[in-house]
Amino acid sequence: MNVTDTSTAFAPASAAMPGAVQTAAAQSAAHNEGWAPPPITQDEIKTVCVCDTQPVTAEGIRTLLSDHPVLRFDQGTDSLARAKDILRDSAPSVLMLDKAFGIQIVLEWLAEIRSAGPVDLTSSTAIIIWGASITEAEALRFLQAGARGILRKTAGISVVLACLRTVAAGRSWMEESVFGEGGRGDRYPRSDLTAREQQVLELVEQGFKNKEIALDLGIRPGTVKIHLKHIFEKTGVRGRYGLALNGLKERGMALSPA
């Protein structure tokens, strides 16, 4: 996907001084209490960029992170082409990407930054997809395309910060409220599944469709449906999206409280 950069990029935040970093609040507390907290090194600082259709959103994130001890706002843009350049040239820790660019456009952009050059740009920058509303199916597609976090723009400040910290640390993260009711069950006894059901489940978690599963395993699509029916009954999870998202959860994806 070729995107022409005709839009505005917002000025980056001032560069941090090399060496240890300490916020004014931390310095004041240290003076008042008579002790000094350990300084934060440059290696511990995590930079955050924003690519959003609404420029004011980037300024909101800049304000939110202005006094944060570890997270630093770097720069914002409303251009996907410019965002790709930022990832290539600056390699921020996190990029918050607006779903409002369009689901298919975002998916194509994720595929492009993972394969267009010699290096997968998501290996050095965690991508958070955020939007006014995100369905369970959309969340799964974004995660399978390479996103590390899923966040709603209606999330509270503490939730936004938790998401940023988690993905910057190398883990995946999603609001639990994104799960449909069928994907929230605590009961998930994989040991009750047969060997074939385990194979079907693993392919569902990878995003395979029934026909693709049938072709991969050398069975009929109707047989795949029967296996899925048994998997739903045994796991207590309803729907293939719930199965796939539960698989991500089992592999360490962090969830915010519903």
Q: Overview of this structure, please?
A:
Strands 1-3-2-4-5-6-7-8 form an eight-stranded mixed β-sheet, with helices on both faces. It folds into two domains: 9-178, 3-Layer(aba) Sandwich (Rossmann fold); 182-250, Winged helix-like DNA-binding domain superfamily/Winged helix DNA-binding domain (Arc Repressor Mutant, subunit A), CATH 1.10.10. The protein contains ten helices and eight strands. Helix 5 (136-145) links the parallel strand 5 and strand 6 (149-152). The chain is an alpha/beta fold.
Helix content: 40-55%
Helices and strands, in N-to-C order?
EHEHEHEHEHEHEHHHHE
* CATH third-level topology of the largest domain: Rossmann fold
Corresponding CATH superfamily of the largest domain: Response regulator
**If you compute it from the alpha carbons, what radius of gyration comes out, rounded to the nearest whole angstrom?**
21 Å
Query: Structural class of the secondary elements?
Result: alpha/beta
**How far apart lie the N and C ends?**
36 Å
Overview features:
alpha/beta; Arc Repressor Mutant, subunit A; Rossmann fold; 8 strands; 258 residues
Give a short synopsis of this structure.
With 258 residues, the chain is an alpha/beta fold. The protein is built from 10 helices and 8 strands.
Write the layout of secondary structure elements.
Blueprint: E1 9-10, H1 24-33, E2 46-51, H2 55-65, E3 71-77, H3 80-90, E4 94-98, H4 103-115, E5 126-131, H5 136-145, E6 149-152, H6 157-168, E7 173-175, H7 195-205, H8 210-217, H9 221-235, H10 240-250, E8 254-256
